[in-house]
Design goal:
The complex is a heterodimer. By secondary structure, chain A is α/β, with parallel strands linked by helices. Helices cover about 55% and strands about 10% of the residues of chain A. In chain A, the strands form 2 sheets. In chain A, strands 2-1-3-4 form a 4-stranded parallel β-sheet, sandwiched between helices. The radius of gyration of chain A is 21 Å and the shape is globular. Chain A starts with a helix and ends with a helix. The model of chain A has no long low-confidence stretch (mean pLDDT about 95). Chain B is an alpha/beta fold. In chain B, helix 11 links the parallel strand 5 and strand 6. The chains are: A alpha/beta, B alpha/beta.
Amino acid sequence: MYNRLLEMCGFEPQEIRQEKQRIEKTFKVLKIGEKEISAAEKRVEQLYSIELPCVRKMLKVWIKELLALVMARDEKEKIVYAIMPSPAESYLAAMLASDKLYVGYPDYVFQIGLGALFGNLNPLLEAAERYGMTPGGGHCGLNKTRLGAHALGIIPKGDLSMAWGIVCDEGPKTDELIHEVFGMPVVYLDRCQDDPLDLFPEINELTVDYIVGEIKRAYAQFAEVAGVEISNELVMKAVKILFSYMENLGKVQELMRSDPLPLSQADMILFIMVTQLCIRDYEGATEAVKMLYEEVKQRVEEKRGILPEESPRVLWGNHFPLPDPGIVKMVEEVGIASPFSEIFYVTIQPPSKIYDDPVETIARRFLELGLITSVTGRVRDIIRLFKEWDLDGILWFNHAPCKVIGTDSLMIKKALKKELKVPIIVVEGDIYDARFYNRQQIRNRVESFAEMLKTRQKRV
Amino acid sequence: MGAYERLDQAISQRPLQLQQARDRGAKVIGISGLGYVPEEIIYASGAIPMRLVRGGDPEPLAAAAGDMDRILCPFSRAQYGYRVLEEESRYQMIDFLVCAISCQHMRRVADAWDLNTDVKVFRLGVPHAYNTKSGLAYYLEMVKRLKEMLETFLGKKIEEEGLREAILLYNRVRELLKEISFLRKNEIPTITGKEFFKLMHSSFYLDPKEMVEILESLLVQLKENRKKGENAKHRILLTGNMLAVGDYKVIDMVEEVGGSVVIEQFCGGVRHYLDNINPDGDLLEAIARRYLQGKTPCAFMRPSRQRIDIVVKLAKEFKVDGVIWYQLRYCDTYNMEFFYFNTIMKGAGFPVLQLESEYDVEERGRLLNRIESFMESLEGRT
């Protein structure tokens, strides 16, 4: 029943046989039957460039993550959950501490595994709405995904959640709710978002010290629960693994400067997301990203792309939607090329320096992002990227329910209009919940925007 | 002159009083983020602290719509919107704004003022890990920076003795508010919920010395009037995230249908006056302890369960018949907390009504219907 789908996703027949029990149990828990598999086959064919072996390989990495998450209680002694957005290396270090542990990000794994691949995320989102994240309440689909997974009982209760509250309030609140309702222990990490607007690109040293202390406090609690410590060596190892992957991905990103645009962002998302969370198969992922580089390079050399040459290029504000890569494909279909999204671009950059205390490296990498520090820091980064990449406009795909990256869109639009004087479209969207928007309505607006960009190109 | 008359007079005279003070060179320091900015320090600096806490009107939201996304809670949008509207003197006379970055919504208030007005903004970080050593150390550092900033801005050092006097003065305001509020434990409260809220909200606006005099005389008056009030049909505990100055619709409706709000658990409610600052020892540390750890945690604090336990305790102490949870739309943390709050309160034997507002005039009918039904449902229980 599932062989064809898994083979499309890079599994060898022998691997499918070996994994049979895990696959079937996972699919049963997730209520993935014949109908869902058939739908997934169509999605994978339509959304991803599965003619590229590297894409198939990366799809396999994601399916393996899905299996590892659902099977965690059967296969591991302790389970520690992470939440997004957070620096993946801090949790990767925890994952590396022992092979008896499961450490992972259920939200992102379901967003990609269940959402993007199977198009079947809605039951989780709806479950979360029955458990306190009421519809219309302006809640984030990422947090809903996590809460919904607990509410439906499709993931085991964690022994600990290390709730990264350094960027948003709702993420840790979700885990508090999960704690109150399902009894999962939580350690909260904190930061004050009080940087003055004119501080960036300087870093608030008080904040650095505070975050370093918070991560170490969480690590101490982790050690109590997991029975193993996260040493500096482990953190350094995690930093190196992740940053090495980022360097490889950065080379692919550079190829996106080529005209025509050589690769769809729907494919890129699969590779980018590896940098945002800790996964089990870094070896497979690294191999895949290296293959991606070679395959995209070949396209560039042959002047092959997914759009005609000289298609207008935009900076995609926020990041590409996770459970609905179809939106990205739609924008590409109407003739707009997005060489990167603002958030993904800045977050896949390795840090400017590795410090003796690797936890300090983590904290500083985070705080080097304008996005994290202030609205003016974010604007400054966007302007820099816009100019560096010589783009034609900005497509701001607003993550409307998010209090962090969705509540500054008007301020950003105003600042960018003033500074750049280029066409900007703000689309009221949701990067984690496709139910939020009407795709046809977005298409109509984006088509008009594309016409405007093309007319402008001709006039210039 | 009775205490209430004196209060009304003080309120009506305050704008002129403030204007005259400004003409003499005094500075008005706006406070955004009600519960986490220690006004004692501002008062001790010689400046005039002005808490910005108005809400309940739809017009400021429309005024703020070009700069603040609609997904922000209406209270936060209003804190900028009143400034844009230019109708409310207390939002216009601000020389410097201190914004407690207590949640994501209030962070955007600081951004909107900073980007779109000529008022300088100081961001006072509020750690959500309020019960940790590092959280306290961070907040203490911010309190010190606030003091330094004020000294620089005003060109004048804040003396220890002046700060101690300010602490004692504000402690006295809080003590009196608490004593008056707790009179509502009596079977026949001599002050209504609406009267008490207006009184407390006046303390955000009036000079604290004058406020102490008013509160002292009112306390005497209320004690004399004991048993002269009416026995309300249903005693209600009102809770939620924020009951802004002027946002009295729910209290009015409860009283309209024969109920009485006998205690409230809000950022500008019992959380404001329940705890005092220890005036002994290191004063800045004492201030930090009280503002961060001494007061009941809001829903964005981690964890915030302590607040729910306090609500249960208050509900028992004030012998309430029911609990009304009043939340503002898009306040994510309170909205989520309601899910288990409801279970806990019902488990403790208290019926709960959840209400939500976006400061829209059209919601009044709906709110009143729900309050009426809730009150009816309490009939059989009492």
